[in-house]
Amino acid sequence: MDPFLTLLHSFSSSLSDSELSSLKFLCRGKIGKRKLESVQSGGELFSILLEQQLIASDQVSFLEGLLESVKREDLVSQLKQFVEEGEVNAPDDQPDVHEKPIEVICENVGRDWKMLMRKLGMSEVKMDRIMAANPFNLHEQLVQSLREWQKWKGKDAKVTDLIKALRGCNMNLVADRVEQ
């Protein structure tokens, strides 16, 4: 399930009728009047905003502005926390600080990727799920497992942890390349 949609759903259920009316009013310049009149819930409004690409998981400033306008600082802080925890995908033109080491690891670690992920503390269940989703693509299994580890660790996902785990698995050559 998409974490951004889950967040929008929780926002929708916490909006009062008057807040929804205010949000609809604020969207008048962006969404046609007829469409806005049919909106009965926050979820419907968010769906229209998503369709019209006014909001997306990597484009939350419009939504943030709307929530600030209706004085829902609690939802604004949830949105900011969502963004900070890296749930929002980084735009493709800005490489993530972890992308380079992940690239190096993916190019140099083969069938032993599960040993590495165990060293990093990933559960067998998550690894099995990743394998089931990518049954014939070893490279993609490793990429997805490293991304899952990053998501799980959040701000605590450090390159030094990757290097330590690689050394713990006797993958010193790969660890040296990551350090470079």
UniProtKB/TrEMBL annotation:
It comes from Phaethon lepturus. Residues 98-180 form the Death domain. Can self-associate. Component of the AIM2 PANoptosome complex, a multiprotein complex that drives inflammatory cell death (PANoptosis). Component of the death-induced signaling complex (DISC) composed of cell surface receptor FAS/CD95 or TNFRSF1A, adapter protein FADD and the CASP8 protease; recruitment of CASP8 to the complex is required for processing of CASP8 into the p18 and p10 subunits. Interacts (via death domain) with FAS (via death domain). GO terms for cellular component: CD95 death-inducing signaling complex; cytoplasm. SMART domains: DEATH, DED. Keywords: Apoptosis, Cytoplasm, Immunity, Innate immunity, Phosphoprotein. Apoptotic adapter molecule that recruits caspases CASP8 or CASP10 to the activated FAS/CD95 or TNFRSF1A/TNFR-1 receptors. The resulting aggregate called the death-inducing signaling complex (DISC) performs CASP8 proteolytic activation. Active CASP8 initiates the subsequent cascade of caspases mediating apoptosis. Involved in interferon-mediated antiviral immune response, playing a role in the positive regulation of interferon signaling. GO terms for molecular function: caspase binding; death receptor binding; protein-macromolecule adaptor activity. This is FAS-associated death domain protein. The keyword DNA repair does not apply. CDD domains: Death_FADD (cd08306), DED_FADD (cd08336).
